[in-house]
């Protein structure tokens, strides 16, 4: 691929990345939120079981 073609495509790639960034961030936030909820659910089931075994 000639250098001028790469230079021509570079702005398009940058704009693609810029438009994809918010989507990636929201996905990451949603995934981490789901992970936190799953972890809390895991703890809320684990603690009573541990207390039941201990008591």
Could you walk me through the main structural features you see in this protein, from its secondary elements to its overall organization?
- It is a single chain.
- The protein is mainly α and 55 residues long.
- 95% of the residues lie in helices and 0% in strands.
- The chain contains one helix and no strands.
- The chain starts with a helix and ends with a helix.
Computed CA radius of gyration, to the nearest angstrom: 23 Å
Largest sheet: none
Q: What is the helix content?
A: over 70%
Distance between the termini: 72 Å
**Structure summary, number of beta strands:** 0
Based on the model shown, name its key terms.
single chain; mainly alpha; 1 helix; 95% helix; transmembrane helix; membrane; transmembrane
SSE order and pairing:
Elements: H1 3-54
Transmembrane segments: 34-53
Keywords: Membrane, Transmembrane, Transmembrane helix
Quick structural summary:
The chain is mainly α. The chain has one helix at residues 3-54. The mean pLDDT is 84.
């Amino acid at each position: 691929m000639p250098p001028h073609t790469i230079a021509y495509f570079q702005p398009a790639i940058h704009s693609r990345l810029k438009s994809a960034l918010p989507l990636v961030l929201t996905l990451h936030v949603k995934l981490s939120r789901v992970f936190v909820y799953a972890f809390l659910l895991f703890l809320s089931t684990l603690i009573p079981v541990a207390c039941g075994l201990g008591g």
